[in-house]
Design a protein that fits this description.
Keywords: Methyltransferase, S-adenosyl-L-methionine, Transferase, Ubiquinone biosynthesis. It holds the Pfam family Methyltransf_23. Belongs to the methyltransferase superfamily. UbiG/COQ3 family. It catalyses: a 3-demethylubiquinol + S-adenosyl-L-methionine = a ubiquinol + S-adenosyl-L-homocysteine + H(+); a 3-(all-trans-polyprenyl)benzene-1,2-diol + S-adenosyl-L-methionine = a 2-methoxy-6-(all-trans-polyprenyl)phenol + S-adenosyl-L-homocysteine + H(+). The chain has helices spanning about 5-10, 20-25, 40-60, 85-90, 105-115, 150-160, 175-185, 205-215; strands at about 75-80, 95-100, 120-125, 135-140, 160-170, 215-220, 225-230, 230-235, 240-250. It is α/β, with parallel strands linked by helices and about 250 residues long. The protein has a single domain, classed as Rossmann fold (3-Layer(aba) Sandwich), CATH 3.40.50. Strands 1, 2, 3, 4, 5, 6, 7, 8 and 9 form a 9-stranded mixed sheet that branches. Helix 1 crosses helix 2 (about 20-25).
């Protein structure tokens, strides 16, 4: 997606903003470089995976020593980037689909998966516009803060969730701490590419719970993703920076 005109054509009637998709598309070539522009995601991914694995085991009553807890299950990662989460989900046994608004990301993801010998389907486009059925597991990591219409985006995620399925979302919280660390510090000093985040678009846990409830979904107890010089990024009881939650169909 080289310019806003192309982005607008791809994202007609979309929840993803064209400029956001273009921004992340420009990062596609470096996505798998652990020292490149996506270095922070490489540090964040193991933390998210720990939460995801525990949530999968708990939701489907799976022994935590099982090597393939997603065997026989389908998984969809929305806003998948170049596949940093899709590939571990595939290794956990899932039949994985990744979708991203930026074609560059879907292409980079597909190339990396092929090189890794993983069979993952990647789609470029808007999740609400795809006829892809439903999935046992739906994930969307650090995406909802980038969408133009959060309610429509949540509704599109809900439509992709199979009966009895599990959804997992993560997003920055809108607090003074997230403004200081994720924008003023991280973007100023290059830990996160400049222009990645807009603090006003961050969403609090209460706001997210309300959005999910409006879509017929129930949010579990959020868990924080915190940072300290000693621990780095880690799961935490502190929600002030970033948080991750499980979501299920209400009732």
């Amino acid at each position: 997606m080289g310019d806003a005109t192309t982005a607008n054509a791809i994202l007609a009637n979309a929840t993803i903003r064209p400029d956001e998709a273009a921004h992340f598309g420009r990062l596609a070539a470096e996505w798998w470089d652990p020292k490149g522009s996506s270095a922070m995601l490489h540090r964040l991914n193991p933390v998210r995976l720990r939460f995801i694995r525990e949530a999968i085991d708990r939701h489907w009553h799976i022994d935590d020593h099982h090597l393939k807890p997603l065997a026989g299950k389908s998984a969809l990662d929305v806003g998948c980037g170049a596949g940093l989460l899709c590939e571990p989900l595939a290794r956990l046994g899932g039949d994985v689909t990744g979708i991203d608004a930026a074609p560059e990301n879907a292409q980079a993801a597909a190339a990396h998966a092929e090189g890794a010998g993983l069979d993952i389907r990647y789609i470029a486009g808007e999740v609400g516009a795809q006829d892809i059925g439903t999935f046992d597991l739906v994930t969307s990591m650090e995406v909802i803060e980038h969408v133009a219409d959060k309610a429509d985006f949540v509704a599109a995620l809900r439509a992709r969730l199979a009966p009895g399925g599990l959804m997992i979302l993560s997003t920055p919280n809108r607090t003074a701490m997230s403004r200081l660390l994720m924008i003023q510090a991280a973007e100023t000093f290059g830990a996160i590419p400049r222009g990645t985040h807009h603090w006003d678009d961050f969403i609090t846990p209460d706001e997210l719970a309300d959005l999910l409830a409006d879509a017929g979904l129930t949010m579990g107890t959020p868990q924080g993703i915190g940072f300290s010089p000693l621990k780095g990024l880690h799961l935490s009881g502190d929600l002030s920076l970033n948080y991750i939650v499980t979501v299920t169909a209400a009732g």
